[in-house]
Write a sequence for this structure.
């Protein structure tokens, strides 16, 4: 088994005049959980459809498990489990029937398929609904049935298109846990536009915007790209006006922006943006002491993934 | 081939788990029964000819209705994406769907074997035309079914699939009826393309390999076009 499970080179998909996926290149190693991030319509699903051999690339090439998605598509699909967006399962089958059908389609031997269905059904929490029609299941259970189907043949690579959309918070936690478990020995690609999700599950993030790859790295890498950090303060004024405090804080060296935010009773809240290279917390504390303000809260945070995401994806839109 | 049979099995179950199969069976048996028993009681003829004679037209209407959902429904619901990203070849999907349709057709035709039994009860059954007729129905139905499967790959709308399938099947049926009004020069071509001209011999008990080749060709051509249509999503 090659160490590089997915190799994508200059992958392009053109629909008429629009370039849905534009010259995307990346690799995924074994044991990685790759988060595919981007606004709606950025080309995440199209890329996944090409990797799963549903669509053919207009240009460039992609190899999955060492096989070309166009020339060796059958081999690729044998190594792949796929959960498409919106989980289009057959509504007139029960969960058990569906999993049996999926096992037969993948050519699994009878005894192995029975064992796997039991095992995966248990891991995905499907035992209670095994005899129910898929059309009667709630969104969460349908999603789990789809996930079970994808993992049934113990594939080396799992491709999941928005696996947690439409689930309630408890279900989301469960599914994320499952994906993390699977990701330890397998390769997982999942797409989402929910940022906390990638932070919680993925070891690597690709951000894609209007078909182009705009960032590739670990969550920490990406956060580090965004220079600057933010301080939140909650100050009891002890007689000083809010504006006076704001002016004083704004004059501190290194602070690029100072804003008042919603405070508490008798206390004012401020948000400061500053460069990340110097820690201003001590200076802020001293400023408070000098001016006899009571510092109730002081918090420093580095740029969030949200900021990174917003900057990367909106910049692109302006350009194009 | 295994994958094709798995698909066929699933499809057959869907047919009989939903009202479609029963509606089609009922409509077909009502019409066929009316035609058959009409000649039996009114014309007092113990034979299957009037039943067979109307099959080219009746099946041109019934078979596209059986085939219309086979691919288009999956296209519409998106489950086609799930199906063809499994390790399965596109032609296996088409053949599986076709076989499922044929199973439903065979059930339907099988039920009308009762007419043959009825004839045998009241008079001598002419075995040649009876065997030929039932075989002819399956071959002709198979041709219509393949056309229906092909039409079903063209669209995600079942009604549109039905209309396309019916239009093509009906045109092939009509060729024979139009023969007297067409110029001498293209008459042999139309006669060859007509579904009915090939059925006529078989239903009289004359099993000619040329007729069988004709039906098989229609099936193969339609199923190949269906496969190509399914593959067309991958055209660059």
């Amino acid at each position: 088994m090659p160490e590089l499970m997915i190799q994508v080179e200059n992958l392009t998909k053109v629909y008429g005049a629009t370039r849905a996926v534009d010259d995307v290149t990346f690799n995924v190693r074994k044991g990685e959980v790759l988060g595919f991030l981007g606004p709606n319509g950025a080309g995440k699903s199209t890329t996944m459809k090409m990797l799963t051999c549903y669509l053919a690339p207009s240009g460039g090439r992609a190899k999955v498990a060492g096989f070309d998605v166009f020339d060796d598509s059958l081999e690729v699909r044998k190594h792949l489990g796929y959960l498409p967006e919106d989980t289009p399962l057959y509504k007139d089958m029960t969960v058990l029937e569906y999993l049996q059908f999926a096992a037969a389609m993948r050519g699994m031997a009878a005894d192995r398929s029975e064992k796997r269905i039991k095992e995966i059904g248990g891991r995905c929490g499907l035992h209670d609904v095994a005899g129910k029609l898929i059309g009667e299941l709630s969104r969460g259970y349908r999603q789990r049935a789809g996930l079970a189907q994808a993992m049934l043949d113990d594939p080396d690579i799992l491709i999941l298109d928005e696996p947690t959309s439409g689930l309630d918070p408890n279900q989301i936690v469960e599914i994320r846990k499952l994906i993390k478990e699977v990701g330890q020995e397998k390769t997982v690609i999942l797409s989402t536009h929910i940022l906390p999700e990638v932070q919680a599950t993925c070891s690597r993030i690709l951000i894609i915007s209007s078909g182009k790859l705009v960032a590739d790295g670990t969550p920490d890498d990406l956060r580090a790209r965004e220079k600057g950090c933010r301080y939140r303060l909650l100050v009891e004024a002890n007689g000083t006006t809010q504006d006076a405090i704001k002016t004083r804080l704004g004059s501190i060296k290194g602070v690029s922006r100072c804003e008042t935010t919603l405070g508490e009773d008798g206390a004012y809240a401020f948000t400061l943006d500053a460069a990340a290279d110097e820690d201003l917390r001590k200076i802020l504390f001293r400023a408070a002491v000098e001016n006899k303000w009571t510092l109730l809260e002081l918090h420093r945070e580095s740029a969030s993934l949200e900021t990174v995401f917003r900057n990367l994806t909106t910049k692109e839109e302006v350009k194009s | 081939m295994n994958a094709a049979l798995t698909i066929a099995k699933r499809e057959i179950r869907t047919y009989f788990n939903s009202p479609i199969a029963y509606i089609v069976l009922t409509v077909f048996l009502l019409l066929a029964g009316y035609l058959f028993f009409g000649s039996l009681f009114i014309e007092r003829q113990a034979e299957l000819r009037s039943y067979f004679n109307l099959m080219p037209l009746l099946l041109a209407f019934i078979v596209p209705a059986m085939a219309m959902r086979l691919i288009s429904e999956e296209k519409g619901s998106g489950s086609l994406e799930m199906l063809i990203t499994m390790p399965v070849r596109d032609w296996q999907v088409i053949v599986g769907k076709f076989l499922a349709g044929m199973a439903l057709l065979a059930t339907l035709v099988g039920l009308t074997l009762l007419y043959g039994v009825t004839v045998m009860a009241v008079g001598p059954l002419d075995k040649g035309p009876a065997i030929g007729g039932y075989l002819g129905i399956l071959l002709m139905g198979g041709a219509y079914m393949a056309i229906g499967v092909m039409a079903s790959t063209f669209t995600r709308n079942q009604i549109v699939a039905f209309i396309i399938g019916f239009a093509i099947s009906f045109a092939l049926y009509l060729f024979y009826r139009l023969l007297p009004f067409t110029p001498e020069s293209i008459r042999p071509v139309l006669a060859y393309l007509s579904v009915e001209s090939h059925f006529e011999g078989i239903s009289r008990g004359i099993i000619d390999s040329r007729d069988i080749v004709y039906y098989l060709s229609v099936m193969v051509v339609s199923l190949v076009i269906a496969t190509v249509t399914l593959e067309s999503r991958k055209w660059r």
